[in-house]
Design goal:
Rossmann fold; alpha/beta; four-stranded mixed beta sheet; single chain
């Protein structure tokens, strides 16, 4: 079961003025299966997890000990307990995020961030998943999505099924009408500055079958 955090969506629904019933619903089982099949046809591995705990257990079986691991800023990953697992060090992974946070010099820290997108395993969430198989995310700077197209050796995307929408156009609409207002409210509370949609990434298929694993979690997660 995923946990509620100070930055979970429920804390910003009123401030952001979003339509949760329209954009954050658990889809019927046939739509979930249709979506999983469509993603699979695009040469990506698909796992349907029962809840956040199940998703975290699946991640642990995928990533070997000794692997370098990096994650994009993600409420979803926090809610399923991934960030805590990495910080504890018990999984035996080499956290590039911890290395970045330990660096005091700005220039070196920025170089480490750029290098981190080439991690053995980069984990992220998505802002929308089209039932036709495309996966979409946006970010202000690009640090959260820079690894998606090519940089990371392996990419793991964890998304609640509440992010499934019918079409690619609906994915863009969901981002503008739901995900971005919530992220903007979070950024204002966390940093005191607004966010922006700086970069979009659409994952429409893989030439390297199996490079990307998509874990669809049967819970409401993230934005």
């Amino acid at each position: 079961m995923a946990r509620d955090t100070q930055y979970s969506a429920g804390h910003f629904l009123g401030t952001a003025g979003v339509d949760q019933k329209k954009w954050s619903r658990i889809p019927p089982a046939p739509l979930l299966e249709q979506t999983a099949e469509a993603i699979g046809r695009r040469s990506m591995n698909v796992i349907i997890a029962e809840d956040g705990s199940d998703a975290l257990a699946r991640i642990r079986t995928i990533i070997p000990k000794g692997s370098t691991v990096m994650s994009g800023s993600s409420t979803t990953l926090i809610e399923i307990g991934f960030e805590d697992l990495v910080a504890e060090g018990e999984a035996g992974w080499r956290s590039l995020r911890e290395r970045i946070l330990a660096e005091d010099e700005d220039r070196t820290r920025n170089e480490l961030r750029r290098h981190s997108i080439t991690a053995d395993y980069f984990l992220s969430s998505a802002n929308a998943v089209a039932s036709t198989g495309e996966i979409v995310a946006c970010d202000a700077s690009g640090s959260r999505v820079g690894a998606w197209p090519y940089g990371a050796r392996r990419l793991i995307i964890v998304a609640g099924v509440n992010k499934i929408v019918p079409t690619l156009q609906d994915a863009f609409d969901r981002i503008r009408e739901y995900a971005f207002p919530l992220e903007n409210a979070r950024a204002l509370r966390a940093y005191g500055t607004p966010s922006m949609i700086g970069k979009y990434v659409i994952l429409a298929g893989e030439r390297d079958p199996g490079r990307t694993t998509v874990i669809l979690v049967k819970e409401v997660l993230g934005y």
